[in-house]
Amino acid sequence: MTRLMLGRTLERICKGVLLLCLLHFLIMMILYFDVYSQRFDLFSRFNSGRNGSRNNVSGAAGNGHPFYYYNLSRPNATLASYLATDEQLVQSAQPEISQTPSPKPLPPCPENPPGLVGRLLIEFSSQMTMERVQKENPNVTEGGRYTPPDCRPRWKVAIIIPFRHRENHLKYWLHYLHPILRRQRIDYGIYIINQLGEDTFNRAKLLNVGYTETLKDAEYDCFIFSDVDLIPMDDRNLYRCYDQPRHFAIAMDKFGFRLPYAGYFGGVSGLSKKQFLKINGFPNEYWGWGGEDDDIYNRITLNGMKVSRPDVRIGRYRMIKHERDKHNEPNPQRFNKIQNTKNTMKKDGISSLTYRLVKVKKYPLYTNISVEIGKPPPRPFKG
User: Fold this and answer.
1) Which of 198, 246, 266, 383 might form a disulfide with 270, Cβ 3.0–4.6 angstroms?
2) Whether 283 contacts 353, CB under 8 Å
3) What are phi and psi of 79, to 5 degrees?
4) Choice among 187, 229, 285, 294 that is catalytic
5) pLDDT tens digits for range 305-319
6) pLDDT tens, 176-222?
């Protein structure tokens, strides 16, 4: 009896295993034919797309579209998803073209550039040529423009120099300043504002002309106004704009490396576009030497701003020695004009500027802007 029961049990187990094997075989066959049908469908669609012009047979609906074989046995497949034209099928068969990724934005330039060297040796005894200066500055582009290649500067700086008959000084200025400015990671352009003719020189009016003309060349938001005979002795004296108008040349050798008086604003100064417009630019009526820088200082303080300055050890300058220029004699009216800044600054400035632009020429190291600015009014007769 026991042997009979054991035999029946073994028979049932064998039948169960056989059924499981048969079920497994059926599932494998179903999966195999399903995959095969999908591959055949993909091949037929691609082949029909390529040869659509040869197999353009009207469909069952009579709508003029080619007839294709479609496999509707796939999950989520519908007839509407296959109603495509030749062009759509060919497009879907084409591989996607990868796009070149856009370059990453440059980081901001550091507040304290790492390549500065500090105190500099400045001398004017060696002979200087424009060819030498150009070889020393291969990265400066036409018109005296430079932009740091590895960072994004905060300011776009126009450096403006009032000029007449100072070609030799200009060579030394470019020789020293281009390397300094590049180490300071400044986006800058250098503009020489050349007063044509031999009438009385007008420094402040030329600076107003420089402000106006440089904005035609680029969207500057910072303006450095520099005499051509002043060279900074320390590259940590950063040529950029600040929260307040900036006086850079605070310790010249001709003054014993000291500020001559508290209200001095001459030599090299800088204002942002907003600050410049707030004071109506510079006065146009200071013909001859002296007075205009004190008028500018008055405009700044009368408009609620203060002059900022570097440390006296950093703001040191050397001046190229020279004789006073002809037609740039001291202005005898300067002291009276300085006392009237409050009354004149709103009507005399960038808002009242007149001049005639004669020529703009871009050289490898600077842009030259030649202008005619008129003559000084006749002095009142003293009876």
Assistant:
1) 246
2) no
3) -65, -35
4) 229
5) 999 999 999 999 999
6) 999 999 999 999 999 999 999 999 999 999 999 999 999 999 999 99
